[in-house]
Amino acid sequence: MCDAAQSSQALRSRLIRDLSREFPAPAVTVESLALQLGRLLDAGGDGLPLPGGGNTLERWRALADVAGHDLGLAKLFEGHTDALAIAGEWKAQRYLPTDGRIGMWAAEPPFAKVAIEEDPSGSGDRSCGQPVRLVGRKAWCSGAPVLSHALITAWQGERQRLVLVELDQPGVTIDNEGWQAVGMAATASVDVRFDDARGTLIGPPGGYLQRPGFWHGGAGIAACWFGGARRLAGCLQAKASSRGDPHLYAHLGAVDVALASAAALLRESAQWIDANPRRDAWLVAERTRAKVEQVVEQVIHHCGRGLGAGPYCRDPAFARMVADLPVYVRQSHAEHDLEGIGRHVAVGEKTHAPLSASEASPWEL
């Protein structure tokens, strides 16, 4: 491991250790998550290696460690660090606040869409850094009540744009009725309304989806899922270590095999991204996400059968994690994503650049 990676690992371990001491119980409010996020950012915890920059795995290790502490915190932390990475990809860091807490809000369900109001000057092509006005509703805006800014997707006619918005302004209204989840409840992923709100363009038209880093970030979310699953597995390991129960050993063995396979694929995917930072990482990311999702389901299954009702009812950290993790994993598109992978394997997929033969077929040893 290089010196930079060792330094990053030491900082990460210290920050998580300090958080665990100060916040031993899982957060139940977004205010608690905001306090923890502030601790991380003030200590420089968001200074992660950029994806595709040669140390993607260290970035994912940090995301997994934060997720193992608290998945709600990981949701806000991942969004903030993703926003930083996107701005870096478009060389737009100068437009970001120096001490802000930034959300990355890109969900666009049919009932919620934000539009960029027409430019009175009649100029249709506005570039990065230019001011715009926003109108519409954004859904599932994690951390909205406590963040300072958000990088959101909005539409300029038929073209999707990225816009940085300061949330503390008259044109922004947070709707607290939009989030009824039990799992991930503390993230307060509510709806936000924009009514002639001011914003700043980041990147070119299509700048969210049409960049190599889109799929790098998508794979990074799987590292958060992995961190949550690993935390649950630790509960099973602790119980098996204190009891000579062969059934517990069998459940732990199944969990070990599942987590080891996910970890191996995460390492391989990070290595591929670093070796091919400008290539289309769609297939790499989709395979990684699908595998980690399967592993999460296996870990929850074996932990439940091996541990019984006790930790669900009496261990607040386990109960919160096992409630949060299935909600977080639903950022996967399940069979829709699997269909895309299968179609690519069966007949080729023209919408994404193909990998080389050796990269496209993981069935070979």
Structure description:
It is a single chain. The chain is α+β, with helices and mostly antiparallel strands and 365 residues long. The protein has three domains: 3-95; 102-202, Butyryl-CoA Dehydrogenase, subunit A, domain 2; 213-360, Butyryl-CoA Dehydrogenase, subunit A, domain 3. The chain is 52% helix and 14% strand. It has helices at 3-22, 30-42, 56-69, 71-89, 213-242, 246-275, 282-307, 310-314, 316-329, 335-347, 357-360, and strands at residues 102-105, 114-116, 131-141, 149-156, 159-166, 172-175, 190-202. Strands 1, 2, 3, 4, 5, 6 and 7 form a seven-stranded mixed beta sheet that branches. Strand 4 and strand 5 form a beta hairpin. Helix 3 crosses helix 5, helix 5 runs antiparallel to helix 6 and helix 6 runs antiparallel to helix 7. It is globular, with a radius of gyration of 21 Å. It starts with a helix and ends in a 5-residue tail after the last helix. The mean pLDDT is 92.
Q: Descriptors for this entry?
A:
alpha+beta, Butyryl-CoA Dehydrogenase, subunit A, domain 3, 52% helix, 7-stranded mixed sheet, 7 strands, 11 helices, Butyryl-CoA Dehydrogenase, subunit A, domain 2
Cα-atom Rg, whole angstroms? 21 Å
CATH class of the largest domain: Mainly Alpha
In angstroms, what separates the terminal alpha carbons? 26 Å
User: What's the order of the H and E elements?
Assistant: HHHHEEEEEEEHHHHHHH
Strand content: 5-15%
Uncertain residue ranges:
none
Number of strands: 7
Helix content: 40-55%
Q: What is the mean predicted local confidence, pLDDT? A: 92
Structural class: alpha+beta
> Quick one: overall form?
globular
Largest sheet: 7 strands, mixed
Assigned CATH superfamily of the largest domain: Butyryl-CoA Dehydrogenase, subunit A, domain 3
CATH topology of the largest domain: Butyryl-CoA Dehydrogenase, subunit A, domain 3
**Annotation field: number of helices:** 11
Counting structural domains, the number is 3
CATH architecture of the largest domain: Up-down Bundle
